[in-house]
Automatic annotation (TrEMBL):
Protein name: (1->4)-alpha-D-glucan 1-alpha-D-glucosylmutase
Organism (species): Micromonospora noduli
InterPro entries reported in the protein's UniProt record: GH (IPR017853), GH13_cat_dom (IPR006047), Maltooligo_trehalose_synth_4 (IPR013797), Trehalose_TreY (IPR012767)
Residue span, Glycosyl hydrolase family 13 catalytic domain: 6-648
Pfam family, one: Alpha-amylase
Superkingdom classification of source: Bacteria
Length: 767
């Protein structure tokens, strides 16, 4: 762990349109908010026009579309002026190759093939022949559109290099002499000869396990770290690497003082291995925090509702096996073929089938020796149960997979992570729609809520093992923002009303895919009011990701039109619009209560809390790219200035109450880190104690309301109280001072559903 990890980060989606200078312009606001570090999206040169930066094309320079090196220095100057640090996002697993001319290394590989100085940079199977590039239209005559222009091969807007001495003759003849072959985009999933990021042909896998490739692709970032210009590094998708453990050891050695977190997605019950890092990027915390606000008792009601709506009982295990097997054998067929070729002792089709079944049965993203042995054993057992006819092939490949030094054993984990991501995150999460607030990375749709005792056990363990791990409740990868999920959690308190309402809507305006209809209605209620064009964009992406009634590869115009028609009905049909608006309005106040509670818990629990851009106010964003929309920082500055001037906003005003909670909590953590060094649950005494979550971090005490509708039905806090330390404590949200001992919750939480108590002697600027 670094000597001084951040006290809190703020994630900014630096991109063309909000570049490094625009980011520098909000540093004063971030300082006022209370963070210690700016946490930036990737900064290296990316594919032209990239809105996310995860498609790096040149590791030697800052993206000129972000302002380049000069703008980076201006940002550093602004940060130093406010004594803030910088955390950067890096992308070791893959590089952007969708625009070959933008990536000098890839361009050289296309031009020179195996003789390129960069041939070893990319994870290419050269033994399978020419490098296949899936860019052609789905037309046997597509190659007729090739042209030779200015010494390059051109296919519409696509440009490709021509190897020396091969440029004579027709465009087709020139093409046939190259080290690459242009093929239909439909052949990509099955036949590509290079490893991709998931199933995205425009993102080619890098071989950072090679020390020379590591050095070349990390030189600039590590130079910044050595110069003290970077304080932390966020590692994107380590599961895709051939040797994540070795990679992280090399990175830690090269940047020993950096705060280092990894985007490692842990399944329920899985623990982060003892890697030389400070923790994860917080999806594990997201699942725990959000689950606190879901009524566990409603699980049976939602299961029964889902069965009635869909007309069938679908188990999560069977669904995910189906979607993961499809991902392995279809979307990732090229990677599967490469693995099967590494097991020549098994007939090819049996090897493919056995590897696909084991990958589909793998219960985590990937195993890590020696931790992965039990996951492999469980997957082999489950695969054998489903396919007893493959017993011999399963045994043969499993023997190979147990050996971490075997080439097959090294590469197979790269497949299981991709299968999990594509089969579960990007497919099953859109098909299994019993209660979509649970359908998030790091969470499990089958784990219906988190009891406070389980959360306390998790937080206690985090304080011991990973006290500097990141915590979050919203990221650029969440399917729904924290506030949408917080509002959806309210439905778990009114399962009967929700069942009655959604059944009526689905009868009035039916879709041929009832599972997707249930997702759509939950999403609309969770985000309402939402601009029509945003909901249209969301449902098209969601329906295609589900892949049940339409898909990206083969869109079904009739189904998609039916979905868009339903969305329009929500706005244009008076009865539907009024009922939707009425229900959303009815659950919104309790949703706000949940939002404030989960935000306070995330910001105060063990770990380094991150605030995703804009979410310090109410933010009803949906899946990317909706959650990358521009943020109005002027509005946030003005509201924060009013709060600092003494205004105590009511909960229902523009999200200002959330800004109050965020700013006061972050300022306390920054000014008094000594108050956040331990973890102890604070029990409530009284009839409705289950409705409060409270803990002491070593001087700072967080108190949050849970299940607010149930609390109201019980008649409020009544006799319920917390035992506070016997010295004066000040609530940073209201300014009230409490003398300790048994403190009634109806007094402590009279103004807000949350409280943050600190010793009255603790001084926090403007708090």
């Amino acid at each position: 762990m670094p000597a001084t990890p951040p006290t809190a980060t703020y994630r900014v989606q630096v991109r063309p349109g909000f570049d490094l200078d625009a980011t520098a312009a909000i540093v004063d606001y971030l300082d006022d908010l209370g963070v210690s570090h700016l946490y930036s999206a990737p900064l290296l040169t990316a594919t032209p026009g990239s809105q996310h930066g995860y498609d790096v094309v040149d590791h030697r320079a800052v993206n000129p579309e972000l302002g380049g090196e000069a703008a980076r220095h201006r940002l550093l100057a602004a940060l130093r002026d406010k004594q803030l640090g910088l955390v950067v996002d890096i992308v070791p697993n893959h590089a952007g190759v969708a625009v070959p001319a933008a990536n000098p290394a890839w361009w050289d590989v296309l031009r020179r093939g195996r003789d390129s100085a960069y041939a070893d940079w990319f994870d290419i199977d050269w033994d399978r022949g020419r490098l296949l590039l899936p860019v052609l239209g789905d037309d046997p005559a597509a190659l007729d559109d090739l042209k030779v222009v200015d010494g390059e091969l051109r296919y519409h807007e696509h440009r490709f290099p021509i190897a020396d001495g091969t440029g004579d003759g027709s465009a087709r003849e020139v093409h046939d002499r190259q080290h690459y072959e242009l093929v239909s985009w439909r052949r990509g999933d099955a036949e590509l000869t290079y490893r991709r990021f998931f199933a995205i042909a425009g993102l080619a896998g890098l071989r950072v396990e090679d020390p020379a490739v590591f050095a070349a692709t990390h030189e600039l970032i590590l130079r910044w770290a050595a110069a003290g210009e970077v304080d932390g590094i966020r590692v994107d998708h380590p599961d895709g690497l051939r040797d994540p453990v070795g990679y992280l050891a090399r990175l830690r050695e090269a940047a020993p003082d950096a705060w280092l977190v990894v985007e490692k997605i842990l399944e329920y019950g899985e623990e982060l291995p003892d890697w030389p890092v400070d923790g994860t990027t917080g999806y594990d915390a997201l699942a725990m925090v959000g689950g606190l606000f879901i009524d566990i008792d409603a699980e049976g009601d939602f299961t029964a509702l889902d069965n009635r709506l869909t007309g069938q009982h679908t188990s999560w295990e069977d669904l995910t096996h189906t979607t993961k097997l499809a991902a392995a054998t279809q979307l990732l067929a090229a990677e599967l073929t490469r693995l099967a070729a590494l097991a020549p002792e098994v007939p090819t089709e049996q090897a493919r089938a056995a590897l696909a079944e084991i990958a589909a049965a793998f219960d985590v993203y990937r195993g890590y020796p020696p931790y992965g042995a039990r996951h492999l054993a469980a997957a082999r057992s489950e695969a054998g149960r489903r396919r007893p006819d493959l017993a011999a092939a399963l045994d043969a490949v499993t023997r190979r997979l147990r050996n971490p030094n075997d080439e097959l054993g090294m590469r197979f984990p790269q497949l299981t992570g991709a299968v999990m991501a594509k089969g579960v995150e990007d497919t099953a999460f859109y098909r299994w729609t019993r209660f979509v607030a649970l359908n998030e990375v790091g969470d499990s749709p089958t784990r219906f809520g988190v009891p406070p005792a389980e959360f306390h056990r998790f937080a206690t363990a985090q304080q011991v093992r990973w006290p500097a791990s990141m915590t979050t409740v919203s990221t650029h990868d969440t399917k729904r923002s924290e506030d949408v999920r917080a509002r959806l959690a309210v439905l778990s308190e009114i399962p009967g009303r929700w069942a009655e309402q959604v059944k009526a809507w689905m009868e009035y305006a039916p879709l041929p895919d009832p599972a997707f209809a249930h997702l759509l209605w939950q999403t609309a209620v969770g985000a309402w009011p939402i601009e029509r064009e945003r909901l249209h964009a969301y449902v098209e992406k969601a329906a295609r990701e589900a892949g049940a009634s339409t898909s990206w590869a083969d869109p079904d115009p009739a189904f998609e039109q039916a979905v868009h028609t339903l969305v329009d009905q929500m706005y244009d049909d008076p009865s539907l619009h009024d009922e939707l608006t009425e229900l959303a309005a009815a659950i919104t106040p309790a949703g706000w209560c949940n939002s404030l509670g989960q935000k306070l818990i995330q910001l105060t629990m063990p770990g380094v809390p991150d605030t995703y851009q804009g979410t310090e106010l109410w933010d009803n964003s949906l899946v990317d790219p909706d959650n990358r929309r521009p943020v109005d920082f002027d509005v946030r500055r003005e509201l924060l200035a009013r709060i600092d001037g003494g205004w105590r906003p009511p909960v229902d005003t523009d999200g200002a109450a959330k800004l109050l909670v965020v700013s006061r909590t972050l300022r306390l953590r920054r000014a008094h880190p000594e108050l956040f060094t331990t973890y102890r649950p604070v029990p409530a005494h009284g009839r409705v104690g289950r409705h409060v979550v409270a803990f002491d971090r070593g001087g700072a005490i967080a108190v949050a309301t849970r299940l607010p509708l149930g609390l109201a039905r019980a008649g409020g806090w009544c006799d319920t109280a917390l035992s506070l330390p016997v010295h004066e404590m000040k609530d940073l949200f209201t300014g009230r001072v409490y003398s300790g001992g048994e403190t009634p919750l109806d007094d402590l939480l009279a103004d807000y559903p949350v409280a943050l108590l600190a010793p009255s002697t603790a001084s926090v600027e403007a708090a």
